[in-house]
Amino acid sequence: MQSLAGSSVVVIGAGVGGLATACYLADAGADVRVIEKNEQLGGRASHLERDGFRFDMGPSWYLMPDVFERFFADFDRTPSDYYELTHLDPHYRIFFKDGDQVDVTPDLERTKEVFEEYEDGAGEALERYLEKSKENYEVGMEHFVYEDRTRLRDYLDLDVARQARGLSLLGSMQGHVEGYFDHPKLQQIMQYTLVFLGGSPKNTPALYNLMSHVDFNLGVWYPDGGVAAAVDAIADLGRELGVEYDTNRPATAIKGREGAFLVETPEGQLRPDLVVSNADYAHTEQDLLPPERRGYDADYWESRTYAPSAFLLYLGVEGEVDELAHHTLVLPTDWDEHFDQIFDDPQWPDDPAYYVCVPSETDDDVAPDGHSALFVLVPIAPGLEDTPEIRQQYRDKILEDIADYTGTALRDRIVVEERFCVEDFANRYNSYDGTALGLAHTLRQTALFRPPHRSKGADGLYFVGGDTTPGIGVPMCLISGELTAEKVLADYGRE
């Protein structure tokens, strides 16, 4: 087993990827310190508490439980050592704006019946689709996610080619789904998970149909206390392994080289042997590193396709909201215009598709008695003008939309309200153009086409998080932490 005993590491940023990397490196014997610019750990997966209400600020879907199980098993632990899970039923509810309502439940046979109501043969098509999705998931995870293939020649290997045979590698999700379902609503149901990947049906590779296996077969779960509770568990594991955390301590510069780095912070200098950055990749390169140590120039970051930003409302309301499920989607019958207004013609969406999360439907501890906690997330283009006046207008529009299409009147019952949008993502997370997620999963930004874990310009500097492989999402960032740690151990570990 390789050891980093005697080595010191500073991890910049306490998002999921940074917390996971810290665990692996500390377990290998390194002296690990995590510094975080904000007041709490978790990065985008932090939480907000106001007057007895508790909200996940970002990720709120607990998907891919197998990834969490594998992560904790690497340290001879299980998720249940830290938190309990509830299998949600329904997984989620969809309100189409023409009046249709669909519940997707853990009962696949019932879901097939729902599909048949929209299109003859769609139930059998769903079964075939999920078989393909499961195959893509199992092969993709084992051979292309947990194994980080960073060079083109890695994909030319005969064994790799054999494993990849039959995977839906090329084409778009739109084309792939159209091969199974004609009805546009069924296509939307199969594609909604693209929101978690920061893409649209037209620009996301068909490979990501594997997300349907995650959704329909592995299920949608809720950790007591929210996703932030799962993040707290990762941080607690780090403490058990000896990781030290400093919040409210931003990095302002990275200087030096491996063995003699200098990380500058307002509270003083840190002098680690190695550095891992979980801060946004572009921010690290453009703002923290000197020009001669950057792997990419400003033109590179300007040319990338970014995942959406978001307009978020965190609402504490009086009474129940029984019309809404724990996870609720509100979708226009034609959502192409909304995606166009994110990726092609950036503007505030006229007829938005959006998501409403009501954790108080499952967890009594996230809201005071007689109240409900919910948040609303509207994907919007990064870089949009974001003023208090625009936020107020859009807030009113969304509350009216919710009332019209779900039958849930919220406006006169709100007792706690917070808003979060483009400027907040940029300021709180140093995210490029205020993107909520980072680099989108387009074909040219997937796998080896994402920025690498090893810095291209500074030996001993590594990157982790959604901008690297395998990509966006809490489970992917957990895996990113493992992959980054593997790179560090390969380069500096000792027998």
List keywords for this structure.
495 residues; alpha/beta; FAD/NAD(P)-binding domain; Guanine Nucleotide Dissociation Inhibitor, domain 2; seven-stranded mixed β-sheet; five-stranded parallel β-sheet; 16 helices; 19 strands; 35% helix; globular
Give your account of this protein's structure.
Helix 4 crosses helix 9. The strands form 5 sheets. Strands 7-6-15-16-17-14-18 form a 7-stranded mixed β-sheet, sandwiched between helices. It has a 5-stranded parallel β-sheet with strand order 9-2-1-13-19, covered by helices on one side. Strands 10-11-12 form a 3-stranded antiparallel β-sheet. The model has no long low-confidence stretch (mean pLDDT 91). The chain has 3 domains: 207 residues, FAD/NAD(P)-binding domain, CATH 3.50.50.60; 110 residues, no CATH class; 125 residues, 2-Layer Sandwich (Guanine Nucleotide Dissociation Inhibitor, domain 2). A hairpin with a 2-residue loop joins strand 10 and strand 11. It is of the alpha/beta class and 495 residues long.
Brief synopsis:
The protein has 495 residues and is an alpha/beta fold.
